[in-house]
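Check this.
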Amino acid sequence: MQETLQEHFHQWGGVLFFIILYSILLLFIPFYKKANRKPTTAYMAFVLAFAIEMHGIPMSMYFISWIIGRKLPNGILWGHTLNQYIGYWGMYLGIGCAILSIILVANGWYNIYHKYWSREKGEGRVVKTGIYRYIRHPQYTGFVLMTIAMMMIWATLSMIIIWPIMVYTYYRLAKKEERDMVMEFGEEYIRYMKKTKMFIPYII
């Protein structure tokens, strides 16, 4: 097991691969919005923490080990997070969450692109189709779910610190966008808000 874990590190090609892979989601958000910059920065910091510590240098392990004077066991801020409990099924669950995340982000983008963004042609309207029938911010749910997937695969100290900051920035962005939508669509969007949950169907 130890030799297998050591093979993960100093694989800088793997670091670059995962940075590019997880950054693809950013192609599905409108970069022209200034309000998106902070959540995007937090997400990218999360991706960097994941990629570098999984395939580059396990900085969390080195830091905590230096403080407590002994090496952390596999799965505690380095290594496959749930390996000691359910083996590699933790990694498979993380991959499943990542796939669901991609579906949420892509479906949200598709409906927004073809419905709301068409307002430039005078046809923009409140989007209630696809995943928007169930939640109001599927793309932000997708981004958060992707980060949960990463932590299920390989959680680190820096990821745990960044995660609540990132979630809060996406929450603030979602609330701002909803205020903008109320100003644009008025009572129609208020009715939609009352019928549809914000991030998780039937829950919240």
User: Anything to note?
Assistant: Residues 2-195 form one domain. The mean pLDDT is 89. Residues 157-185 form the longest helix (29 residues).
